[in-house]
Write a structure and sequence with these properties.
alpha+beta; 3 strands; three-stranded antiparallel β-sheet
Length: 122
């Protein structure tokens, strides 16, 4: 978007538009409060080979998948095992985290627009 057009748009923002943005921000903040299961990390699925010499895994039918969430813990990457019974919940937690990031990005844009109109509260 052309920056001159954007500034002019924000400068001529009506009170109704400001109210609409404030309402949207309030709704987004309320939605953010519902995302209590969020999990921040990378999803990894692994297949493995065991130590039994006659096992089918040595012929290409590896064991797995085993599921992990890779997180940053004290500046180091750590892999946290996710049991099969919790895979769906963990993936939902990843989706909640992604939605939280979308909400935060939108709130940032709303707040910047409000600042340009001097309608951002201190």
């Amino acid at each position: 978007m052309n920056s001159v057009y954007y500034i002019r748009y924000c400068w001529t923002m009506s009170n109704k538009t400001i109210e609409k943005l404030l309402k949207e921000r309030t709704e987004l903040l309320a939605e953010l409060g519902t995302l209590s299961r969020m999990l921040h990390g990378s999803w990894v699925e692994r297949f493995s080979v065991c130590s039994r010499p006659n096992c089918k895994c040595h012929k290409g039918h590896k064991h797995g998948p085993r599921h992990y969430l890779v997180i940053n813990e004290n500046g180091q990457q750590r892999q946290k095992y996710i049991p099969n019974a919790q895979v769906i919940a963990a993936k939902a937690g990843r989706s909640d985290y992604n939605r939280a990031c979308e909400i935060i990005d939108r709130i940032t844009h709303i707040n910047l627009a409000l600042m340009k109109k001097d309608a951002y509260e201190n």
